[in-house]
Amino acid sequence: MIAGLxxxxxxxxxxxxxxxxxxxxxxxxxxxxxxxNGAGKTTAMKMLAGLERPDAGEIxxxxxxxxxxxxxDAIRAGISFIQQEFSLxxxxxxxxxxxxxxxxxxxxxxxxxxxxxxxxxxxxYETSLDPDRKVRTLSMGERQQLEILIALSWGARVVILDExxxxxxxxxxxxxxxxxxxxxxxxxAVVYISHKLPEVLELADWITVMRRGTAVWHGAARGAEAGxxxxxxxxxxxxxxxxxxxxxxxxxxxxxxxxxxHWSEEGRSLHEITLEVRRHEILGIAGVAGxxxxxxxxxxxxxxxxxxxxxxxxxxxxxxxxxxxxxxxxLDLPPTDNGIVHVHRRPxxxxxxxxxxxxxxxxxxxxLERFRIDPTAVDRASATVQLSGGNQQRLxxxxxxxxxxxxxxxxxPARGLDLAAAAELYRQLDDFCVAGGAALWIxxxxxxxxxWADAIQVLVDGRLSDRLPANEAAxxxxxxxxxxxx
Amino acid sequence: xxRLLARSTTMSLxxxxxxxxxxxxxxxxxxxxxxxxxxxxxxxxSVGSAQALAxxxxxxxxxxxxxxxxxxxxxxGIFTIGSEGQFGxxxxxxxxxxxxxxxxxxxxxxxxxxxxAAALGGVAWALIPALLRAYFAVDEILTTFAFNFIxxxxxxxxLNGPARxxxxxxxxxxxxxxxxxxxxxSDTVANxxxxxxxxxVAVAVAFGRTTAGYRVRLFGSQPSLALAARAxxxxxxxxxxxxxxxxxxxxxxxxxxxxxRAVFATVFRGYGYLAxxxxxxxxxxxxxxxxxxxxxxxxxxxxxxxxLGVGVSSDFVFVMQGLVLFLMSFRLTRAAR
Lengths: 486, 337
Known about the structure:
The structure holds two protein chains of two kinds.
Chain A: E1 3-12, E2 15-25, E3 30-34, H1 41-48, E4 56-61, E5 64-66, H2 71-76, E6 79-82, H3 94-99, H4 111-122, H5 140-153, E7 158-162, H6 169-185, E8 189-194, H7 197-203, E9 206-211, E10 214-220, H8 226-234, E11 252-261, E12 270-278, E13 282-286, H9 293-301, E14 308-312, E15 317-320, H10 324-328, H11 335-339, E16 350-351, E17 354-355, H12 357-370, H13 377-380, H14 389-403, E18 407-411, H15 419-434, E19 438-442, H16 446-452, E20 455-460, E21 463-464, E22 468-469, H17 475-482
Parallel strand pairs in A: 3-8, 3-9, 6-7, 7-8, 13-19, 13-20, 15-18, 18-19
Antiparallel strand pairs in A: 1-2, 1-4, 4-5, 9-10, 11-12, 11-14, 16-17, 20-21, 20-22
Chain B: H1 2-6, H2 9-30, H3 35-46, H4 50-75, H5 83-101, H6 107-136, H7 140-160, H8 196-207, H9 211-221, H10 223-228, H11 233-260, H12 271-281, H13 286-310, H14 316-336
Helix pairs in contact in B: 2-3, 2-13, 2-14, 3-13, 4-8, 4-9, 4-11, 4-12, 4-13, 5-6, 5-7, 5-11, 5-12, 6-7, 6-11, 13-14
């Protein structure tokens, strides 16, 4: 064995991110760490790489217990962590990035030596990196290649790859295959974090499945069965029961048919999105974050238009965005300005183009009372940022539930809410659906969706699966779609 | 100090000024002048008498008009720094239009046409940067700054060539006819342009209470939420940038008809940049902008009196303005955190 974790735990506030996890990696082997969002994979690897200190348990290297003071210590010990967000400087060249922070780097910048190192390490790859190219001009795949070469130049004996193909597609997968082969040859131990089962089954020697901070499955990749791993990722859902009474649905309120989105701000796209939400119904959208959820939510809510396909949407939609600081609130403006977003043109809030302050205030107070925020907050807070995170979310929920007449689009709506406020949200959502409303609920938490939704579709890489019932019988099928098996 | 600055924007302006005066006193003492004497002459020369106040109002009027016009743009998060160039273009348009129209129209229509032409001149000078920003997301800071340079050299060329008055010894246009000058108030040098200020301040305050003003600040604070409020980003960008241009052009007319009587090569005196600094550091609020415009106009005027009275260079005013703006900028970093 080269490196490992022995029953490590890490807690962030109320969240137990990693709970008594043990794991080993050996020279020349690839160990895949898989699990859904928030399973604790990245946190566990941050501890191994010296970026976080465990609350309990120990890190072992070459059979000895070690404590890393910083990331630099871990790098000196030969552990390199290649994160999802690359740590390259875009305005510098490949060679310069290699020199940056290199353990052997002294005062003089020897670009020629750096270029030779890049050539030597990069030999045998399909594409070779020009040392003098600026990182800005590199594709995602080439950046990943550069990061790995830099790690090797630092003398890494353990390389941790966080979601290495999430940004790179088919070519990236070919490159990864090649990289892993070479890392094996050089007797480097590799930990490979992913949520994509088919890839892991092909590329890894060992697999550990994490769920809620602990290892729930461990074994050799050869002979492992995709279905079994998918179920381990999702967990034991046999005890789950729907917490809503299913009603027979009415007419369609939202319908997307073959909707396409070519390019969003974050460079994500959507393909052939087809879904239908009917009166009295909640449709859950499951899937790991970063697969086009924000784009789908904005499309469904009518904030943006699709580039193709047909869409039928109601005139007024309530939309609770995932990132409220970015999409739902103007934090430096007062709560009243945030309350009247949808209604600011309508009487009695507006008259002859002017806002009527008494009406604006009364309306905002009503929104706040909907989720039991002390309404004097309207007068106390001159900027919405002065409200607590939970109260900010309640203000958004109040506003969007008030606006929704037929359709609600919810993206992680319970984020930042305490249990009582979450219960209140679920109650009001149920009332809304009973009264004839329809809801699209996007969440990475499958259990939540199984409890509340009538049906579930899975979003992977901007594509939506077929519609599955949100019940126990369908869990295995949903799990397989989540893991990309079908 | 920082706690005092943090209280309110207007309050922080007052505190920053007090602090700047204290530092200024040390500097004045360093050149061998009694600071008390120097500040007495500043006071007397800026607000100490009716005549001094009238002088100050002449500087304050174009500055405040420009600053008020910039408020919507800065609230929308658009950092247009083109006021300086738009002011010059507006002044030249005002003078040339007045000279061209005066022989054919009565006085009041002549003034109205010239004022409108000046505002349109400012709009025209703002139009290309505004369109580039609205349709191609080209950084308005760079384009408006570039347009200031173009305006500077275009004006110099015109004043040396086609626009130069016949037989004028200086590089200038012909003087505008005396009957088109803005009438003075009783026997002071102040003119009726001053009466426009309360009206424009009221308009600026009222705009913040309209639904359009609401969408402008929502867009400035959170563009993605402004979309949910069905705001039209292009309309906001174009509208606010062109309003700023119109205000700066109109301020050029006020300068020509109220003070300069012709356009000289010295028409660019930094009012545009000063107005922007005022609005930016006043966080695009109306009250601090008004207080700041009065303060800076008084300082400029008073420091000229100080040069005559006690011999301290009038450039002292730039030290004072710099200190006030510097201290105000602390408040911004605190707010940003």
